[in-house]
Amino acid sequence: MDGVNLFDREAGRRDAPGVLLLHGQPSSSYSFRDVINPLAEVARVVAPDLPGFSFTEAPEDYPYTLEALAQTIDPLKSCVCRAGDASCAAAALHPHRRRQAQLAKRGGRQARSKG
Question: Would you state the torsion angle of the CA atoms of residues 78, 79, 84, 89, taken in this order, to the nearest 10 degrees?
Answer without folding.
Answer: -50
